[in-house]
């Protein structure tokens, strides 16, 4: 082309003059007799072995995922005895602890039953009998998924659990 005119795209058909019945779907162009280049028939077995190695043969009550982006957060956790949607764990990944924010949980019965958490950004001085928690967020999408306590235990309450007993039973 000369003179700075508009470029023509010879790779794309002009849809305004093309009969819609003549267009070919990309599915029509796939040759299913050839195995795809990125297909691995052993991928399920490899994934299963990876989970087994991560868990070191131990059982878990669930595999926990972020509710917003479905990123896996924990493979080895324990379900709360009373609150069945809550879990605790010590070994997690794809989680970040917000250390500059403190969520105190008082030991008094009245404050324990309160539905509102007090958020503080100061130090934990003056609260020797209180349990101090730091928020835990998904490191991928920053959704709050739980809290982290002073004993280095993660308490998850905003997660999607998937039944891991099926996975574990394959190894037993």
Structural class determined from secondary elements: alpha+beta
Stated plainly, the CATH topology of one domain is called Metal Binding Protein, Guanine Nucleotide Exchange Factor, Chain A
Number of helices: 3
Give the biggest sheet: 7 strands, antiparallel
Overall CATH architecture of one domain: Beta Complex
Show unreliable segments.
Answer: 106-127, 165-172
Q: What is the H/E string?
A: HEEEEEEHEEEEH
Helical content band: 10-25%
The N- and C-terminal alpha carbons lie at a distance of 70 Å
Task: List how many beta strands DSSP finds.
Answer: 10
Overall, the morphology is elongated
How much of the sequence lies in strands comes to 15-25%
CATH class label of one domain: Mainly Beta
- Radius of gyration, Cα only, in angstroms? 26 Å
Mean pLDDT: 74
What does it look like?
With 172 residues, the protein is α+β, with helices and mostly antiparallel strands. The protein is 14% helix and 22% strand. The protein is built from three helices and ten strands. Strands 3, 4, 5, 6, 7, 8 and 9 form a seven-stranded antiparallel β-sheet that branches. A three-stranded antiparallel β-sheet has the order 2-1-10, with no helix packed on it. It is elongated, with a radius of gyration of 26 Å.
């Amino acid at each position: 082309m000369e003179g700075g005119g508009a470029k023509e795209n010879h790779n794309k058909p002009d849809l305004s003059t093309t009969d819609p019945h003549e267009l070919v779907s990309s599915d029509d162009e796939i040759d299913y007799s050839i195995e795809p280049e990125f297909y691995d028939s052993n991928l399920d077995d490899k994934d299963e072995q990876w989970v087994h190695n991560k868990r070191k043969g131990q059982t878990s009550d669930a595999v926990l995922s972020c509710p917003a982006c479905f990123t896996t957060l924990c493979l080895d956790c324990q379900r709360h005895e009373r609150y069945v949607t809550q879990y605790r764990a010590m070994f997690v990944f794809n989680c970040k602890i917000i250390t500059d924010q403190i969520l105190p949980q008082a030991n008094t019965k009245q404050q324990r039953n309160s539905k509102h958490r007090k958020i503080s950004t100061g130090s934990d001085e003056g609260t020797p009998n209180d349990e101090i928690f730091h928020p835990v967020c998904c490191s991928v999408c920053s959704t709050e998924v739980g809290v982290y306590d002073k004993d280095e235990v993660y308490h998850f309450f905003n997660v999607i659990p998937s039944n891991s007993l099926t996975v574990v039973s394959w190894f037993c």
